[in-house]
Each structure stands twice: as C-alpha cells, then as structure tokens.
Amino acid sequence: MKLEPLGDKVVVRRVEAESETAGGIILPDSAKESSQEGRVLAIGDGRLLGDGKRMKPQVSEGDRVIFSSYAGTEVVVDDHSLLLMSEEDVLAVLE
User: Residue 81 in 3-state DSSP?
Assistant: First the structure.
C-alpha cells in the first residue's frame, strides 16, 4: 500500500532511539524515549496560500529530520509504523 500525503503533510519513519548511552550503559525498552529523528518518506504538494498557489515544501524525500516531541499521527502501513505530520512540525534537517 502507498501512503501519499496531501497539502503540507509529510510522512516520516522514526529512527530507533539509542539502546546504549555514551558511557556504555544499556537501556531497557522502558527507559528509552521516543526518537525525535526520522527520515522523510513522502511529502505533499505544499501548503495552499491565500492566492490559491502552493508553497514549495522545504523538506525533500530522503531528508533526515528532527521533529517536535508530540508531532504527527502514528499510522501503520504494511506493518511499518509511520508518522503523518504537518511540515511545520519539522524543526530541522540534518545534513
């Protein structure tokens, strides 16, 4: 199944949180925080402006991004957990 976002929506696959700290301590699943980093899988056409034109999205497919903690709606497509969020929930692109 293909998930195609509309308007200014973005589909992101969350990157798994680290299971080990910098000091080498292994974290159990209950202590891990949800990662705020992911890869953009698909983008919509862009935000609709007042004059009827569309603003070009600032992110591209394949970008590694950081997003807000409670951003988006989690959906499951073909047994994959994905986030569907507004482009404004994306805080930065990692390069």
Answer: strand
